[in-house]
Each structure stands twice: as structure tokens, then as C-alpha cells.
Amino acid sequence: MKWSDEAWNRIQPVYQKILDMDFNKQLTDGSLDKEKFKFYMAQDAYYLGEFGKALSAISSRMKDLDDVLAFSNFASGAIVVERALHEGYFKSLGVPDDVKPSPTCLLYTNFLLNHAAYSNVEVALAAVLPCFWIYKRVGDYIYELQVATSSNPYKEWIDTYAGEDFANSVNQAISITDKLAESSSPSQRESMHQAFEMATKLEWMFWDSAFKLEEWPV
Ligand SMILES: Cc1ncc(CN)c(N)n1
């Protein structure tokens, strides 16, 4: 069985919880409170900048030049989206440019940067993979359900992750991760699973923190 098939099976309980989240249900039917979406957008812009740096660090650690190029393209793609959020949603929603990360956002981005810098590269790949794969699956799921209510104010955001370009990046990231997993030892493959599962939980926490408008306790 491919590493990615095993990984996807192992995260099913958390993935189902993600589909069931109020944030995603309300985004789908368009009833999500604007403040929550605004909070999410601001945090996501911070997240994407740090995610771009993690992808860039991973790119520099790859051996195969095609993989260096792929991760370097993913990194620039993340930063292009971050810039577009500032130009688009930040202006239309009135989000200030200097976003301070929430506790969950900081936890998640530091988790990714830490793996990108210090873990074996295949584990670093497994840590960033949910950022691609879960968004693709959740994006497709929301897209399918929202068609009936095309007046949804969040339609533009929903369309972003249901597009073909993103699908190609996701498939490429999965197959590079599988390739590295094939030449990894059983214990390295297990470390990859643990990083993948932890990042999946952090994805859940990221949506949850936006729904709660999470603040620093002190
Ligand atoms: C938190 C989060 N995770 C993943 C993605 C998709 N790259 C995102 N925009 N934001």
C-alpha cells in the first residue's frame, strides 16, 4: 500500500470532524459571521507567508532537482496567494495589514517551520502535506454542496481551492511524498505518519480558532 493511502486512512476520524465543523458548514451555506471570516482571512494570510517559507526551506533540502523546482513553485504559489489576500479580501473586509498570529496560528506555523528546518526531509514533507491535501478535499466537498446557493458571499474563496491548478499541485506533492516514503525505513515512515496526523489536527484547530475568534489569554 502506498504511504499516502495509509496516511489518508489513518486521519479519517479527524478528517470527518473537519467536514462537520460549524465553520465549514456555515461557509458552505453562506451564513458564516463576517467577523469570523475576517479573522480567518487575516490569520490565513499570516499562515500562508510562513507556509511559503517552510516550503522554500524544504525545496532547498530536496536532492532531485525536479523536486527542488516543484517545492520552490509551491512556495511562490503560497506567497502569491498571501499577497492576493492583502490586495483583495484585506481591502474589501477592512483587515489591518499587520496581522498578529493567534496562539493556534503561531503553533501551527512554528510546527511547520520546525519540521522544515530540523526533521528528516521526508518527515517535513509529511508535515506540510495536509495543508495541500485536506484543503483540496474540504474545498471540493464545500464546492459540491454550495452549488445550490450560488449567492454565497464566500463563493470566491470556495472556488480557489476547487480549481484544477490547485489539484495538480496537490497530486504532485502527494507523489513526491510517496516517492520519498518508498526509500524510507519503517520507523521513518511511522515518523511521517505522526507528522501528517499532527498537522491534520492543527488544521482542525485552525478552523476552530477562527470560529471562536481565539485571543491570547494574557
Ligand atoms: C490553515 C491553512 N492550511 C492550508 C491552506 C492551503 N494551503 C491554507 N490556506 N490555510
Automatic annotation (TrEMBL):
Keyword Metal-binding assigned: no
Reactions catalysed: 4-amino-5-aminomethyl-2-methylpyrimidine + H2O = 4-amino-5-hydroxymethyl-2-methylpyrimidine + NH4(+); thiamine + H2O = 5-(2-hydroxyethyl)-4-methylthiazole + 4-amino-5-hydroxymethyl-2-methylpyrimidine + H(+)
Keyword entries, A-Z: Hydrolase, Thiamine biosynthesis
The EC number(s) this enzyme carries: 3.5.99.2
Top-level taxon in the UniProt lineage: Bacteria
Record function comment: Catalyzes an amino-pyrimidine hydrolysis reaction at the C5' of the pyrimidine moiety of thiamine compounds, a reaction that is part of a thiamine salvage pathway.
Family assignment from sequence similarity: Belongs to the TenA family.
Protein name per Swiss-Prot or TrEMBL: Aminopyrimidine aminohydrolase
Lineage, opening ranks: Bacteria, Pseudomonadati, Bacteroidota, Cytophagia, Cytophagales
Gene encoding the protein: tenA
